[in-house]
Amino acid sequence: MLAQNKTSALVDPISEIQQKSRPAAGNTNHESGRAIYNFYCYFCHGYSGNAQTLAATYLNPKPRNFTATVPDTLSREKMIDAVTNGRSGTAMKSFNHALTEEDIEAVVDFVRREFMVNKAENTRYHTVENGWPNHERYKPAFPFALGEIALDTPWESLNKQQQLGKRVFLESCVTCHDRAKVNDEGVVWELKAVSYPRNQYSHKESELSETIDATSQASPYAKHDQAPVFEDLSPSEKQGETLFQRNCAFCHAADGTGKNWIGSFLDSHPRNLTDADFMKTMTRAQLKNVIREGLPGTTMSAWKHVLKDDEIDSIIDYINRAFYPGVDNNTSN
Q1: Can you tell me the distance from the alpha carbon of 20 to that of 24, in angstroms, rounded to the nearest whole number?
Q2: What top-level class would CATH report for the domain 205-329?
Q3: Of 237, 241, 243, 203, nearest to 220 (Cα)?
Q4: Disulfide engineering: 251 pairs with which of 14, 270, 277, 293, CB 3.0-4.6 Å?
């Protein structure tokens, strides 16, 4: 659901101005499907259904390119099932908790007609209505944004116009398009959720009833990036600490509260592992099953294909020590 929050902040699902400027698509149901697609699906599948998005470059397997899919090879029923139940082993999640059956049918029918049959462009993002007047002024940078020229191409290998485009891309486009296409991926970044923004800004600070840290000038989320410090962890707890901070802290926060920047914006919110009212009923067997299998309809995914059973056991040992000392004392009802 992080993508949902990000989408709604960037652009309305479908604006009245965009509707008026677009040729009639056929019927109300089609436009309802468009609005749903532009709110939930574009982040991975792209505004025009071709999966040409930044998010798609990080996913394996890649999101489906609907423009390259022949309708006869992918039935409507299979698409409805995919949206409803998700697809195991992929980034395609279930939307049955967010969309009604009618919504799912509408968005599937929209995708089939708009992209698979008509190969239409759908909604452009860089429009005047979305705050992009005269987008053509960035034209020299388009080959880099579209991946036609790799961003790490040596300057001396570029002609004068391409050098201008690279400078424009690095000055204006890189914020959203990231590094676009590169020849050398370089070192993989270490995954760590850092609680921004900083510089005396705090999102809904009054609602959080917390104050900005005057020393670091960080938002109130930053303190939750600090893991508890122990000097006497057992070997299993030590392994669990490493695994938790590398894998689980991204959503649950380094201190297990889920109150870091990422966790605060996920819907549903990650579980607060320090919440005694909840944790007092959580047994080791239940916790292990949740980590292995995930929780359908939430942001908690299954980790059984990433972590071995003994690694999950060590994470539970760490949770039992660091966040809620007492999991091992709980018994099933």
Answers
A1: 9
A2: mainly alpha
A3: 203
A4: 270
pTM of the model: 0.47
d(CA 54, CA 43): 8
CA atoms of 325 and 301, how far apart (whole Å): 24
- Domain limits of the chain? 2-117, 135-177, 205-329
Tell me the pLDDT tens digit for each residue of 305-326.
Answer: 999 999 999 999 999 999 988 7
Question: How many angstroms separate the CA atoms of 234 and 26, rounded?
Answer: 65
pLDDT at 15 over 70: no
Instruction: Report the percentage of the chain scoring pLDDT > 90.
Output: 54
| 327 touches 287 (CB < 8 A) | yes
Reference 15, options 110, 88, 124, 109; nearest CA is 124
Residue with tokens 């996920």: 266
| Phi (first) and psi of residue 264, to 5 degrees | -70, -20
Decide if 2-117 and 205-329 have a common fold: yes
Measure the CA–CA gap between 289 and 293, rounded to whole angstroms. Answer: 6
Q: How many CA atoms lie within 13 A of 303 on its CB side?
A: 20
Please tell me the distance from the alpha carbon of residue 313 to that of residue 305, in angstroms, as a whole number. Answer: 15
